[in-house]
Amino acid sequence: MSHAIRIITSVKSPNGLPYEVNLGKNTILIGSNEAGKSAIAESLQLARTGSAYGLLYRDKPIKDGTLLSSLMPKETDICVANAFLDNGENSIWELERGKRPTQTGPKGTTLSVAELHGIMAGNLETQGKFFWKQLCTQVPFGNLLGLLDDSLHESLILVCPMLEGSVDLVEAITRLGKIQRNQTSVVKAGQIALESLGSFQDTSDAELVEVGKGLSRAHLRDILQVIYVDYREDPTLQASHVLRHLVEMLGGQDAIGRIPPTEDVQGEYAEVLLSKRLSRAASAARGGGKRARDLQVSLKKLKEALLDVLFSMVEATAKNFSDTVSSFLPEGEKFIFEVHGRTLLIGLRRNNEDHIALSGSTEARVLAAISAALGDENDLIVVDDRMWDSATLAKTMKVLEKAESQIILMTTVKPKGKRRSGWKYVEISRSPGEPLEISD
Length: 440
Hints:
CATH architecture of the domain at 4-108 and 378-439: 3-Layer(aba) Sandwich
Structural class: alpha+beta
Distance between the termini: 24 Å
CATH topology of the domain at 4-108 and 378-439: Rossmann fold
Strand content: 15-25%
CATH class of the domain at 4-108 and 378-439: Alpha Beta
Shape: elongated
Number of helices: 13
């Protein structure tokens, strides 16, 4: 296990100069609002992972240099966060203005309570996917086939083109969604194609053949006329038998006189041929649209089935996970984690009463307990300020000492009681434009 014991950073530095903060495996940052607590937590996240959660109102980890440039002091063109680990190594994040940020050294992962709050505020599918990723393992492809109706096997193979190996259900559902969106585009393209074709009269193959025969008769009539003119001008030409044969083919002189001009027949043939081509294009558009709609229906059924499997697997872990999270809560409190179909019930049981709609410091410590249960020695858990009261804060610190992960806890109030030996206390204050005042 390795954790950061010190951070040197210029992130959000008031005067552009780097400042240093000593850390412990568990560190509590105490200071008023805007004192600079979040800058320290963000620096550590950047150094360990290359990204930080929740910057610039975005509810996700940010690693884009253009966005992160807002953390850079105006007086400098380089921003650095250097985390010194207890094993002697360094994790360094660096951003030079106008360039991409870099992260070097051992990487860890971050689970911010604010990020977990965003997940818990999402829809049931988002929650289910998150807990499946954290608590479950991939499903052997053959086993998954056995869990699905036979009618869905073809669609599953389209989404996961494998006959052996294992399936990550979250990735499969994500790929399925992309295919669904592609099919929606196909349906729309077909509709646009049909609209662009406009109205036209459909033409049968028999009609096309008949007009083609008329065009051939017109061409033969033209050939007959050319030969006849040449024969009149030079009777020595051996053409009389050809002329008689052509006249017979065209049905006699009376029939020849009724053949329309070649230009008219050519125009009619072009119109009929265009109509036929438009008809085929429309048929293809309708066929493609129907196939896409049929696939959409099949994919929708597959997604529902995959979500059922996903939630059933999460349900199988619910009891153990609930017990693990409860171990990071004060005595007498029990974490509620129940799965009913595709519904998650998450809350806190205290004094034989269930509390589902949590808020303030209660919500923060439950989320912190979830993070501690999910985290390992490579994780950094960031618990942001949630209107702590000193007694609740002290209880939370006591149970979080058991977590494997490194913990950064931010607060505007001091915890009740004596300093806990398992925590590093860092007090922060700052005057506008002045360097941070840090005492530990």
